[in-house]
Amino acid sequence: MTTRHFLTLLDLTPEELNTLIRRAVELKQIRNRGEIYEPLKNQVLAMIFEKSSTRTRVSFEAGMAQFGGHALFLSSRDTQLGRGEPIEDSAKVISSMCDVVMIRTFDHDTVTTFAANSRVPIINALTDDYHPCQLLADMQTFLEHRGDIKGKTVTWIGDGNNMCHSYINAARQFDFKLQIACPEGFDPNTELVAQNQDRVSIYRTPEEAVKGSHLVVTDVWASMGQEEEQKVREKAFAGYQVTTALMDQAEPDAIFMHCLPAHRGEEVSAEMMDDPRSVVFDEAENRLHAQKALLEFLLVK
């Protein structure tokens, strides 16, 4: 059987993704009922971290434990990857000992090269280009709060970063309209936008982009590795903060999401983070349930 990987949302069909999201809801209910469900007993997840993390590490490690398996934390400081061992060699060795590998890194080519040389499924837990695991949690959260996202309008406000790229892929796979508000010079990948021009639009003000929106999403202005650009980005993104007043211009039942960690007072106001329309902590918890559904999908035959 061909090994399946999850490097972007496009690695699964729309039908598979929707089934996975609904399964995540079921797994959440199973956990909340206190039922023991251990489909991954004696299986090992290798977790390679070249970027720091809270939600990614906790959710994958807890998920494997709840599934009866084990998660192995590997940082670049502790492995030969950090000393220059070729990715191809590391992939062959690690995948010969573990059942699935999760990678959180900078260069997207790292995960694609690893996958090409692995005998087990590879999961992209974030690269500079994409963050598909977060989108699984976001789609689950919308489903739980507002139902099917198909045909809805989503607004992305801020940098055209890896989260924005994954929202573009999500618009295609989950069939919704995406309105992106970002300043010039911070647009998402032009080729990706062009491939999805039938459902993706770019605006230069949040006020324009938020009209008719059922979901408003943002992220930090300076992602990991861009800290030295903080001051420049603060100036460029002035006026792009998500506030309660901005949310008031979206649809009456619109909800707000943020992948966290959030910089209150920068990309989102403190008031908006605590607003009833904010579902950021449900969204964060759903990283656990959505990724358990993904692990089950990739490993349980």
Automatic annotation (TrEMBL):
Enzyme Commission number(s) of this protein: 2.1.3.3
Domain Aspartate/ornithine carbamoyltransferase Asp/Orn-binding stretches: 150-297
Family label: Belongs to the aspartate/ornithine carbamoyltransferase superfamily. OTCase family.
This protein's pathway: Amino-acid biosynthesis; L-arginine biosynthesis; L-arginine from L-ornithine and carbamoyl phosphate: step 1/3
Gene Ontology cellular component annotations, sorted alphabetically: cytoplasm
MF terms in GO: amino acid binding; ornithine carbamoyltransferase activity
One GO BP: citrulline biosynthetic process
Residues holding L-ornithine: 162, 219, 223-224
InterPro entries attached to this UniProt entry: Asp/Orn_carbamoyltranf_P-bd (IPR006132), Asp/Orn_carbamoylTrfase (IPR006130), Asp/Orn_carbamoylTrfase_sf (IPR036901), Asp_carbamoyltransf_Asp/Orn-bd (IPR006131), Orn/put_carbamltrans (IPR002292), OTCase_ArgI (IPR024904)
Ranges of residues in domain Aspartate/ornithine carbamoyltransferase carbamoyl-P binding: 4-144
Matches recorded under PANTHER family: ORNITHINE CARBAMOYLTRANSFERASE, MITOCHONDRIAL (PTHR45753), ORNITHINE TRANSCARBAMYLASE, MITOCHONDRIAL (PTHR45753:SF3)
Presence of keyword Transferase: yes
Residue sites binding carbamoyl phosphate per the record: 53-56, 80, 104, 131-134, 259-260, 287
Catalytic activity reported: carbamoyl phosphate + L-ornithine = L-citrulline + phosphate + H(+)
Entry's localization field: Cytoplasm
Enzyme class: transferase
Assigned keywords, A-Z: Cytoplasm, Transferase
Source superkingdom: Bacteria
Identification of the protein by name: Ornithine carbamoyltransferase
